[in-house]
Amino acid sequence: MARQQLGIANANEARAGEQWADYQRTYRPNELMTMADAYGQQYLDDAGRAELNDVLTGGGGLTETARLGALQGLSRRAEDAAGAAAAARAGGEVNAAFGQQARTLARRGAGDPTRMAVMAAKLGQQQSLARVGAANTAREAVRGRQLGLRSGVANFGRNMPNTAGQAFGLATQAGSSSVAN
Fold first, then answer.
1. What is the model's pTM?
2. Is there a contact between 121 and 96 (Cβ–Cβ < 8 Å)?
3. Around Cβ 21, how many Cβ atoms within 10 Å?
4. Which residue positions in the chain have pLDDT lower than 50?
């Protein structure tokens, strides 16, 4: 009986080791890629991506507090980069609309300098509003996406080691049981 329980304990211990190795080989890389996405790697420049990779993989010998600060800073940089890109696109769209209006007026012979000056002033306002609105919308969209991804990764990361831990616990229980018998 004791040998049978010891055999069960050894099998469960081996299974726990296999699950941990599978987690490290298969799921951990996915977890790291999702974490990189969760902190906005696609919006960061090369230096920012390298810094994010270093922080996520534990490089640099940072304390947990410093690591959290670095991740928050990188996340804000990604939000700002997305906002800046959206603002630039919005500004270009307003410029294109203004150019179209100016060409239409010129074709109609309505190229009055005063009217063009008024249009230019309106363009400045419209461009500013479009840029600010686009930047804020992009920042909020990136922040929401990052939070959703972080939540999913945190839950995923907590459950995988628990599965291996449960198998190891069963192995320990079976081993303890065999010693008692």
1. 0.59
2. no
3. 11
4. none
